[in-house]
Amino acid sequence: MMLTAHSASLEHDMSRVVHRFFLPGEGTMTVHSRLADVVDRVLAIPEDRLDPIAKGITADLSETQADAESVLIAHARAVSDRVAHRPLTTAQLTILGSAVTSLVAVEGAAICNPSAVAHPSQDGLRDGELRVAVSLRGIGEGHVSSIGFAEAVIGADHTWTFGVRSTPLSRAAVSGSQWSRQHFGEALEDAGQLRDLAAAVLLALPERFGTVELEAAIATLPSDLAMRPSSRAPLQALREMGESTYRATFAPAVPLSARVLMPVLPDEDHGVEDARFTLSTDADDPTPYRATYTAYDGRNIAPRMLTSTDLTTFDSHRLTGAGARNKGMALFPRRVQGRHMALSRGDGENISLAVSDDGMVWEDRGLVYAPTEVWEIIQLGNCGAPIETAEGWLVLTHGVGPLRTYSLGALLLDLDEPSRVIARTTEPLLRPEGDMVDGYVPRVVYSCGGIVHRGTLWIPVGVGDSRIRVYSVEVEELLRSMTRIPRS
Questions:
Q1: 121 and 84 within one domain
Q2: How far apart are CA 253 and CA 314, in angstroms?
Q3: Rounded (10°) angle between helices 68-83 and 47-62
Q4: pLDDT tens, residue by residue, 16-44
C-alpha cells in the first residue's frame, strides 16, 4: 500500500437525527382512518392539560430539531383540515403534529462513500491551508440513505482535520424547480412517454418552465382530447415527469455539516446514494458545484444530478439518455472538446465514457477500461470525478474481486481524448486489511472523490461502509508508480 494513512476519522453518530412526516397506520391494511381517531383523541384532552403536554413535546423535539414548534404545527396543518371539524388551538396543533412526526437517525447504521471538494468559504485560514467540503452517505432505518456533509481543513503541515459536526440537523425546504423544454422532451422520450398528446403539450411550453406552466400548457389541449379516458394515464405521466425536478434550500445560517438532503421523490423513496461532487473549472458555469447521485425506489435505480452555487441551494435534476443508465456516474470538472463528459458504468461492469451538450442528456461513447486484474475481476467503477493533472485525467477506481472485496486503484486518461487510458495501477492502492475488513458491509474500501492540494492527493475513504478514514499520496509519486499503456 503506497497511501499514507492519517489519524483523522469519522464514526457514524446515532444521535444525528432529523424529523419526518408520517401517517399513523400508513402501509397497513386498516379499513378506517387511524388519523381521524388520533384527532378525536387530541380533541378529548382536557383543556387544562393541553399547554403542559404541548410544551413538554416541544421541549423534547427541541433537543434535536431547530424550530420544533413550527415543524409540529406544519405537520399538523398538513392533515388537520381534512379530519378536524373545528379550528384547533396552537397546543392542539402541536400535539396532533407530534402524532404525525417521527425521528430518523440518518447515520443509525453507518456513514460511508465520501467525496471531497473545496469549500465555498476559505475565510479565516492560514497560508497553505484549504477548507474542504466532504459529502457523506448516511444510512439509517430500513437502509434508507441520505446525503450529509462534514467540513475539514488540510493543513500546511500535511494534516487533515475534520471539524466538529454541527447539530441540530436541518432538512431543506423543498420547492419545484425548472425544466428546459428540450430536456423535458428528451426525458419523456427516454421514458417512452413522448406520444401525440405529450408532443402537443410540449409545443405549448415555454423554453423554461415549472409545474404551473406545465398545467397551463395541458389546459390548452382541446377538451375532447384531454377528457378522453385514454388520455388520463399520459397526462398523469406528464405531471409526474414535471414534478421530478426540485429545489432544496437551506437557510444560510445553517452550518454545512448540519445540512441533510433526504429523499423527496418516489424515485428516491429508499435512498439518495453515493453523491460524487465536483467543482467546475469552466468559467461560464453558473452552478459550479455539481454532483451525480443514485436515486433508489426499492427496486430500481436512476442517476440524478445536484447543481449548486454555494452548497446552500441544490437543484435536483433527472439525467437521461443511453449514457445515464446505471450507478456511479462521475462528472469531469470541465468541458472537453466543448462538451460535458462523465465516466459511467452503463453495463454494471466496465468503466465507460458519456458525453452531453447540456449536462442532462447523455450519450454513451463506449468502453474506456474493463476489469483486468484479479482484484477487479467482478466489476470496476470510478471513485469520483476525474482530477486534472499536467499528465492527464487521474481517475480513482474501485475494483471488486474475490469474496466481494472492494479495493482502490487508479487510471490515467488522455487530457484531450479521455476514452484513451495512458496508465493504470496493476496492484491496489488500498485494500481492506486487518481492522479494515469488518464493517456494516465487510471487505469494502470505497470513495466517491478525492481532492488535490499542493501536489498531494487526499482521499477520504469509507471503510466497511461504516466509518470514514483519510489517506494521501503525492500525485507525482502515484503517477510514477502506474504502468504505462502503449498507444495502439
A1: no
A2: 16
A3: 130
A4: 999 998 887 665 445 456 788 888 898 89
* Contact status, residue 327 vs residue 382, Cβ threshold 8 Å: no
Q: Indicate whether 325 and 423 sit together in one domain.
A: yes
Identify the bridge partners of residue 138 per DSSP, sorted by sequence position: 111, 146
**Which ranges constitute the DSSP H helices of 25-67?**
34-43, 47-62
Split at pLDDT 50, 70, 90, the class of 84 is: low
| 3-class secondary structure, 268 | helix
Q: Are 270 and 142 in contact (CB under 8 A)?
A: yes
**Does the model's pTM come out above 0.90?**
yes
CATH code, 132? 2.115.10.20
Question: b/e string for 292-316 if b means 16 or more Cβ within 10 A?
Answer: bbbbbeeeebbbbbbbbeebbbbbb
Contact in structure between 462 and 111 (CB atoms under 8 Å): yes
The answer to whether 65 and 168 have CB atoms below 8 angstroms apart is: yes
Instruction: Report pLDDT for 29.
Output: 47
Q: Helix or strand or coil: residue 262?
A: coil
Residue type, position 202, single letter: L
Instruction: Judge whether residue 268 has pLDDT over 90.
Output: yes
Domain match, 33 and 99 both: yes
The predicted pLDDT at position 96 comes to: 93
Q: How far apart are CA 301 and CA 271, in angstroms?
A: 10
Based on the domain organization, do 390 and 307 belong to the same domain?
A: yes
Q: Mutual orientation of helices 196-203 and 211-219 as an angle, nearest 10°?
A: 110
Please count the structural domains in the chain.
Answer: 3
Residues 35/40/46/48 CA torsion (nearest 10 deg): 40
For 342, list phi and psi in degrees, rounded to 5: -150, 150
Q: Using CA atoms, how far apart are residues 445 and 302, in angstroms rounded to an integer?
A: 23
- Cα 157 to Cα 6: distance, rounded to the nearest angstrom: 12
Cα Dmax for the chain = 84
Work out the pLDDT band at 230, boundaries 50, 70, 90: confident
393 Cβ contact list (under 8 Å, min separation 6): 332, 386, 387, 412, 413, 414, 415, 418
3-class state of residue 358 by DSSP: coil
Distance CA 237, CA 199 (A): 13
Are 22 and 152 contained in the same domain? no
Residues 83 and 125 in one domain: no
Q: Are residues 360 and 392 in the same domain?
A: yes
Domain of 234 in residue numbering reads as 178-242
Find, among 193, 177, 143, the residue nearest to 287 by Cα: 177
For 376, the grid coordinates are 477487479
